[in-house]
Structure formats: structure tokens, C-alpha cells
Amino acid sequence: MKLIHTFLNICLVCCCITATLASCSKDDDYKQDYNPLIDDPKPEEPTKPDEPVPSSSYNEQYRPQIHFTPAKNWMNDPNGMVYADGNYHLFYQYNPQGNDWGNMSWGHATSTDLMHWTEQPVALTRDELGDIFSGSAVIDKNNTAGFGANAMVALYTSAGSDGKQQQSIAFSTDGGKNFTRYTGNPVIKNDDDNLRDPKVFWHEASKQWIMALAKGWKMGVEFYASTDLKSWQHQSTFFVPLAGRPSLQWECPDLIQMGNKWVLLVSVNPGGPILGSGMMYFVGQFDGKEFKADGAEGTTPVEPQWLDYGMDNYAGVTWSNTGDRHIMIGWMNNWSYAGAVPCSPWRSAMTLPRELKLIEHDGKYLLCAPVVSEIDKIAGTWTTRHSVSPDGEAIDAKNAYQLRLTLNLDKNTTVTISNDHDEQFTFDVDATTRSLTAHRTSATGKSFGTFSIPSLRAPLNVTGTSVTIDLFVDQSSVELLTGDGTMSMTNLVFPTSIYNHLKVVGAGCEVQYRPLNRIWQ
After folding, report:
1. N or C: which end of the chain has fewer CB within 10 A?
2. Which of 368, 389, 407 is the last residue of a domain?
3. pLDDT of 441-467, one tens digit each?
4. Catalytic residue among 28, 33, 50, 77
5. Residues 105 and 124: beta-carbon distance below 8 Å
6. Are residues 242 and 110 in the same domain?
7. Which domain holds residue 446?
8. How far apart are CA 200 and CA 170, in angstroms?
């Protein structure tokens, strides 16, 4: 969960933007600049979970048609994601009282197919320990906590007005409809505001629950262990200094076993790939107590990799209780401008769900994040063009669509999608460096603050003589991925109307596109 502060006043914007982050002074290690969005929210009364779910036509300008959004009000981090009894539960940071950050609670939505979502009543609201910040949920199949076999147990950060971030739990025995708070909260006490976002899983080898906790501005991840979800013992601390990024928040960790390797997801803010927030990951080993990143014992500094090279994929974590599938969803926004995006009566959407897969590429491990196969459930019939005329190709799609380009890598290529208002989103593919550079400038549509980014560059991470690139285009976003997810770039855009025209200049290509049906009933 976020304590976000105005930290990017010294960002340098040129043909390519880089963020230079100044280190905090030794005498004032963790004090940050004042930000009225976070530090002085409007006074609000807590909302009771049994209040009715807001309604919407979901037809407003910029309203996503294939991405989850609440009917109204502010949303950020995905929380408590768990699969149970045929339902994917998506809890999320939510302000039941308004369209700005504040009054942090857990909103709730459910889906049977990861595409169509039903918004449920608010699940958890603030109490005497504070706001309900980010966390996770598990199914306690063996009743280790004593709340009942198969109880859904939510673990979250209680963020008090006194600055304390402590860890608490609540449980549900009716499938997540109602939660009872544990009377022994907090289960992990703490005296500062730099310990949050518990992500919990069952570690079969050591027969215990493992919790990963982010250290915020202190940076790093703390690992705790428990046999009953109520009594926790500290096990270890993981931290790697990030070159050129001396002061930033570590948030929303997620430790995932993938074959014989372990992957640690960490969201950082500021200090993302360009500016503002972003998601990085480490690959290594975990023995039930300590996570060690590959290469940590060598002389070369350990460098994380970026999961997404765009501006708008943050706080992503995976669903629990999904067997061998590792399904992630992220918050499609960036703390650099989150409070200014022009959306009303809602603010923020989630990314399309991604299925994480670990492969080896070019001598190292690479975490792929393709969109889940369930996207086919809302997809229409493919239209195929074996070439694109010099004048371009019209795309017949009203709500959203998937555009698939198979580009030869024998020469450089520029791809532009545009609309009838002369607004456009453009990216270049460099055949020599096998990289992609996208341009989210004021030409894409409405722009504000730090939103315009001249160049966002990403490695394609492909071999061979061609590359397949998928674009998932909605009313206010473009998710751009290689076909197998070896590269991901997620960006918000705010065009007057959806981009419905394609132009390709450069290498030969095959074009396919299909409409994606509106998910709202």
C-alpha cells in the first residue's frame, strides 16, 4: 500500500526521460516531501461493507471495456487475490467515498473466467487500527488458524493515523462475502510506516506459511514464517541496492516458485523504468527462510529485471490457490500522475490478467507475462491481411480489439495506430538492436503533467527472423506484448475515440485483428 509523496520534481525530460533520484540525508533518512493527495486526505466517514454496490452504464468517455474498473471511485493496488469454489476473487485498494486516494478499504469483485467481473460490496473498511492497506488472501485448507477448514483468510496492513504500519488478519467462512477480524490483531506489531503489503503462501517443504513484507522507503523485503497465520517469526531480510536509484519505495512483494527456481516480484516507486512507479523481479532460490538472488555471491552486482517496460503496470501480484498456474494482475496507472488521470466517476483500471512463465533466454532467466488464454472467451473472429497498403488499414472495432503483427526483422519498421481526430500511438521496431521504442506523447490524445513520454524503450527478447507483437487496445490503454510475452509494455492513453486505423512503414508484415467484446452486462 502506498504512502506516495511528491518526489519527482527534478525529473529531466528530453528525447528520452530518465529519473534521477536524490538520496535522503543521513539525519532525515525516510522523511519525504508533503503530498496533499496522501498526507491530507479529506475527512471521511468509514463505509459499512453492507452498503449497496454502486452502479454505472460503463459507457463514459475513457471507460475501459475489457478491463476491470469499479463502477465509481478511486482504486489502486490489487489485493487478496485468491481462487475458491470456481470464483476468482479480486480485492483491491478502494475509496468508497470519493475519486481520490483516501479512506483506504478493500473493494471486492469476482469472476468465473478472469474476463467478466461482478463488483461486490466493500469487504473491509478501516477500524481502530487504521486504514486497510494492501495484502493477500489464502484458503486455509487444513484449518491451521482455527477459523474453520477452507476458511478464506485475508492478511493486510493496518495503517494507523499514528504512522504505524502493522499486519492484521480477518477471515471469512462464507466465500468472501463477510469477514470477521481476528481479535488478536495486529499479528505483527511495528512502530513505523515502512512495513507493509503482506503476501502469504504455504511452503510445503517446511510445512509453514511464509509472508513477504515490503520495507517501503527503507527498501528490501522481510520474510516471516508461521504455522497458524497468527503467530509470526522473522526469518530473514532481502535487499539489493539498485544502481542509480538510491532512494525509493519497495512495495507489494510476491515470492513465487516456478519449477526449481523462485521469482521475487517487487514494485518500486519512484524509480520505475522511465519515471514514477514500475515492477521489477529477481530470480533465485528460497529455502523456507531466506531468498537468495542468482549471482548474489559473485563479484558482479545483482541487477533486477523489469517485468513491464511501460508506464502503467504497478503493484502486480498473483492469485493464490491456482495450482500450477501463476496468474497476475496489476494496477494500470502510475504514481507520477495517478490522481490526475481524466476519469470520472471512477479512477483507475486493472491490467488484463497475465500468466507468468519463466524461460531461459540469451543465457539468463526471463519472466514472460502473456495475456491469459481466457481472452479468447471475449474475442470475435480474426481478420487477416498478408500485407498493409501504403494508405493503411481500417480496423473495424467499436469497443476494444486485439491487433497481431508478424514483422520481418530484416529492416526497421514504424507502426502507427490512429483515429479520425488525428490522434495516434506510434512505436518503432529496430531490427538491428531487436528493440522496440514506443512514443506516448501529446499526439496520443489528452495529456497532462508528466504523462507525455517521448520514448519508452524495451528489448524484444526474441530470436529468429521475425517477431510477433500483440496489441490489446481499449478505450484508454494499449497493452503491447510480444506473442509469447517475452516483452511487455503497458501504457494508458486518452484519445478522443478509440484508435481504428493501422499504418505500417518498413519491413514486410502479416496483420491480424479481432474485436474484443465488452465485458459489462
Report:
1. C
2. 368
3. 999 999 999 999 999 999 999 999 999
4. 77
5. yes
6. yes
7. 379-516
8. 14
- Do 242 and 229 contact (CB within 8 A), yes or no? no
Based on the domain organization, do 444 and 483 belong to the same domain?
yes
- How far are the Cα atoms of 124, 129, 246, 344, 481 from residue 181, in angstroms, in the given order? 9, 11, 38, 33, 41
Residues 347 and 417 grouped into a single domain = no
Q: Are strands 364-368 and 357-361 parallel, antiparallel or unpaired?
A: antiparallel
Most distant pair of Cα atoms in the chain: their distance: 68
Q: Is the pLDDT of residue 4 over 50?
A: no
Does 163 fall in a domain?
A: yes
Structure-block grid coordinates of residue 384: 487477416
Helices marked H in 338-463: none
Q: Say which DSSP state 164 is in.
A: -
Is residue 456 located within the same domain as residue 344?
A: no
Sort strands 327-332 and 314-318 into parallel, antiparallel or unpaired: antiparallel
Number of CB atoms found within 10 A of residue 342's CB: 14
Are 247 and 299 in contact, with CB atoms under 8 Å apart? no
d(CA 235, CA 422): 56
Backbone conformation region of residue 86, classed left if phi is above 0, alpha if psi is from -120 to 50, else beta: left
For 111, other C-beta atoms within 10 Å of its C-beta total 18
In sequence order, the 6+-apart residues with CB closer than 8 A to the CB of 134 are 1, 77, 79, 93, 156, 157, 196, 197, 251, 252, 315
Tens-place pLDDT, residues 195-213: 999 999 999 999 999 999 9
Instruction: Tell me: do 298 and 233 sit in the same domain.
Output: yes
Q: What is the CATH classification number for the domain harbouring 330? A: 2.115.10.20
376 is known as an active-site residue: no
Among 40, 75, 475, 19, residue whose Cα is nearest residue 277? 19
CATH of residue 420's domain is: 2.60.120.560
Amino acid (1-letter code) at residue 289? K
